[in-house]
RNA sequence: GUGGGUGUAGCUCAGUUUGGUAGAGCACUUGGUUGUGGCCCAGGUGGCCGUGGGUUCAAGUCCCAUCACUCACCCCA
């Protein structure tokens, strides 16, 4: 038997309804906030990710699916969406029509990590990005929209964490201060952090090892090193969130794993996912558009972990399953043949119709209708054909009524629709 | 990449200690009830016991290898 690739998964009927529902909620909400969908390719030139995510990050160093195509060009299955959105914004000069662009996209991402709870090699993200707005009010609005999204999906066990990473002006001072501390505490650091303290000292703040956490307890806070502009930007974000009643906590340890982030950064964390506590994350990346060859335009965005969201939502049994309005139980060759043409007309008229073509006993057809959770069963047998009227049974009330089939098929469809009542 | 746990029917799992006929519940199917679902009762279908090798008269069970799943480290969404 050929099995699917490690870390990949199928989304089967029964779960796909929930995925569709979440997608619909996202589309409706984002579009109400003025976002438009952008659909992007899954393969990009490897160079794009190296330049945007950062060459020293784990993603680029060891997690990307990168391979040469038949001509030898290096291409990569996208590990995240922001790089592609930015690429597209630049390539199609979307800023020329209007520098302000609000875009969302939904689709699969690929990272070759060891799979575990809430972590797959192909996973799905819902992304939203805003270009051309540097106002902190937009930062607040993005977080506002994100938390609204979670509450619409009845996800309760989530907390918004926010922080500011400063800008190229203020970050060097902070890095220097942090490096000094790391040198003095180097005996307490775990192996990884010893390495990181030289390459990317910010990451040490994010370490989960207890010894590192203790060592970092009195670490300098980036917030104390913010330049006046960054500081007032962050103040406005916080004040606006408070005004809008968005609960949040300031998390000075919050560091992003991708190099392009600046200023406001945020993460939605949950306690229901084991070690994978981030269910959404994002922030401002004011320098990225320019860095990728575009004009100087600020930007902010976030990504929601779709798979993780599915795991923590309480909507699993919300009755989203695809149940037939009507199940046709036809008995005997003649009835099956006649009913199969009706089934098509009923479906076309918007009635979810299922019919059994096996010719089995009425009892087994009723059982199947019950299993499919059909609302009504249309019984068509020799008797009915002879008498010119079929039987419509309401599966909940057990009420049965007779519907004439003497007229044209349209009449039958209309009659059935009427009988449905609610 | 490193560690722990687990692989037996479509699903959830017994059976492995101490080698000796492949099991249960659910699901599916047929009938009890000539053409009416859910409950009940009786029957039936369904397994290379993850895979490959080894030990043995004999392996689901013991040994070796390998693969997969899963959780954790790491990292992130």
Topology record:
Blueprint (H helix, E strand, L loop, with lengths): L15 H17 L3 E2 L5 E3 H8 L4 H6 L1 E4 L5 E4 L4 H10 L2 H4 L3 E10 L11 E10 L4 H17 L5 E7 L6 H14 L6 H9 L10 H6 L6 H4 L2 H16 L5 E2 L11 E9 L7 E7 L3 H4 L7 E7 H7 L13 E5 L2 H16 L4 E4 L5 H10 L4 E5 L1 H6 L1 E6 L5 E5 L4 H12 L2
Parallel strand pairs: 1-5, 7-8, 12-13, 12-14
Antiparallel strand pairs: 2-4, 3-4, 5-6, 6-11, 7-9, 9-10, 10-11, 14-15, 15-16
Helix pairs in contact: 6-11
The chain binds one RNA strand of 77 nucleotides through α3, β6, β10, β11 and α13.
Structure, described:
There is one protein chain. The chain has helices spanning about 15-30, 45-55, 60-65, 80-90, 95, 135-150, 170-185, 190-200, 210-215, 220-225, 230-245, 290, 305-310, 335-350, 360-370, 380-385, 410-420, and strands spanning about 35, 45, 65-70, 75, 100-110, 120-130, 160-165, 250, 260-270, 280-285, 300-305, 325-330, 355, 375-380, 390-395, 400-405. By secondary structure, it is an alpha+beta fold. It folds into 2 domains: about 15-170 and about 225-315, Bira Bifunctional Protein, Domain 2 (BirA Bifunctional Protein, domain 2, 2-Layer Sandwich), CATH 3.30.930; about 325-415, Rossmann fold (3-Layer(aba) Sandwich). Strands 1-5-6-11-10-9-7-8 form an 8-stranded mixed beta sheet, sandwiched between helices. Helix 6 runs parallel beside helix 11. It is elongated, with a radius of gyration of 28 Å. It binds one RNA strand of 77 nucleotides through helix 3, strand 6, strand 10, strand 11 and helix 13.
């Amino acid at each position: 038997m050929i099995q699917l690739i490690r870390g990949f998964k199928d989304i089967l009927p029964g779960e796909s309804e929930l995925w569709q529902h979440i997608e619909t909620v996202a589309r409706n909400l984002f579009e109400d906030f003025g976002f438009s969908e952008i659909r992007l390719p899954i393969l990009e030139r490897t160079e794009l990710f190296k330049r945007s995510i950062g060459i020293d990050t784990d993603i680029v160093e060891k997690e990307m699916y990168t391979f040469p195509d038949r001509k030898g060009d290096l291409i990569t299955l996208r590990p995240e969406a922001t790089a592609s959105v930015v690429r597209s914004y630049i390539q199609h000069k979307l800023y020329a029509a209007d520098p302000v662009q609000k875009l969302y996209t939904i689709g699969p991402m690929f990272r070759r990590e060891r799979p575990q709870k809430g972590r797959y090699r192909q996973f799905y993200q819902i992304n939203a990005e805003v270009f051309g707005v540097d106002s902190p009010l937009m930062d607040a609005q993005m977080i506002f929209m994100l938390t609204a999204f979670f509450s619409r999906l009845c996800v309760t066990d989530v907390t918004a964490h926010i922080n500011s990473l400063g800008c190229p002006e203020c970050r060097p001072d902070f890095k220097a201060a942090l490096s000094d501390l790391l040198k003095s505490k180097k005996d307490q650091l775990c192996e990884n952090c010893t390495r990181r303290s030289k390459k990317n000292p910010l990451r040490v703040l994010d370490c989960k090892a207890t010894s590192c956490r203790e060592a970092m307890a009195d670490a300098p806070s980036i917030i104390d090193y913010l330049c006046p502009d960054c500081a007032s930007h962050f103040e406005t974000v916080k004040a606006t969130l408070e005004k809008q009643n968005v609960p949040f906590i300031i998390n000075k340890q919050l560091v992003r794993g991708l190099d392009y982030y600046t200023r406001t950064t945020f993460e939605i964390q949950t306690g229901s996912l084991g070690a994978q506590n981030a269910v959404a994350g994002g922030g401002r990346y004011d320098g990225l558009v320019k860095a990728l060859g575009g004009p100087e335009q600020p930007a902010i965005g976030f990504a929601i972990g779709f798979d993780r969201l599915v795991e923590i939502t309480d909507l699993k049994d919300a009755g989203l399953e695809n149940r037939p309005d009507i199940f046709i139980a036809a008995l005997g060759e003649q009835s099956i043949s006649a009913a199969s043409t009706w089934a098509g007309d009923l479906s076309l008229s918007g009635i979810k119709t299922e019919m059994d073509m096996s010719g089995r006993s009425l009892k087994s057809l009723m059982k199947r209708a019950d299993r499919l959770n059909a609302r009504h069963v249309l019984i068509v047998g020799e008797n009915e054909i002879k008498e010119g009227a079929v039987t419509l049974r309401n599966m909940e009330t057990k009420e049965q009524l007779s519907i004439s089939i003497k007229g044209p098929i349209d009449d039958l469809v209309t009659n059935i629709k009427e009988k449905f009542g609610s």
